[in-house]
Amino acid sequence: MATPDELTRYRKSIKQILSPFANVRYANGDFRNQAVFDANADRYLIVSTCFEGTKRYHGCVIDIAIRDGKVWLEADNTDAVIARELVNAGIPKSEIVLGFRLPELRSGTGYAIS
Question: What are the beta bridge partners of residue 47?
């Protein structure tokens, strides 16, 4: 489990990794990304919204939470492979849970199971 100092570093790294995604512009549609960082809940999101005609689109692009001293990658709907970015930022694989994978499929990934 990560120490308080490590968790502080993880939070900073997560924000640095996610922030550029708030500025992504899409070729089709008028999608707009927004960074949502909730330090109290330790939740870090990139959400995308758009109207196309009368239809509203709203979706989660990236969802990361810190729970029980681990970094939980709940959603990664990018081509960037956010888990690899977290590792490159110095967060050990043993501290990252691929929450979007079924628990029984996490054991062969090299990342934390829970």
Answer: 34, 60
